[in-house]
Amino acid sequence: xxxxxxxxxxxxxxxxxxxxxxxxxxxxxxxxxxxxxxxxxxxxxxxxxxxxxxxxxxxxxxxxxxxxxxxxxxxxxxxxxxxxxxxxxxxxxxxxxxxxxxxxxxxxxxxxxxxxxxxxxxxxxxxxxxxxxxxxxxxxxxxxxxxxxxxxxxxxxxxxxxxxxxxxxxxxxxxxxx
Length: 178
Known about the structure:
The protein has 178 residues and is α/β, with parallel strands linked by helices. Helices cover 34% and strands 25% of the residues. The chain has helices spanning 14-22, 35-47, 60-67, 97-106, 120-131, 155-162; strands at 4-8, 27-32, 53-57, 73-79, 107-117, 136-138, 168-174. A seven-stranded mixed sheet has the order 3-2-1-4-5-7-6, with helices on both faces. β1 (4-8), α1 and β2 (27-32) form a beta-alpha-beta unit.
């Protein structure tokens, strides 16, 4: 009966462990294929004695399609997905229209989708794609959202900021209009 949150591609687990600690009344699921990240999450959740985390070692599209019911997830977080910067690799990017439609279908009415990237071209691409999903509404009206306090700074983000790189956050809610 607890709210369900999902982090896709949790990498080296900082954000998901913080979320699990800050929201002990939520059930949280991490979806990841990176084996060292899965191990780090299991170790970290044991050290923190978190009982609200579950790991799914699977491709995000497959996991969302097969393991989550429509309108069952309160919040999905996708922080720093691989930008696949070469044009010929853009087809491998996670945030594409069919995947966003699948994400939106799994969100409850009023559910949140939070994303972040440190790759400006990918941020612009994500913004365009998200704006075409009729059931999602940009929380700030249009454009990028301010950095949420709930998203911890990873060492990669801290290094990037020291080097002058930007980070772009996006925040959407599902409103189907019903």
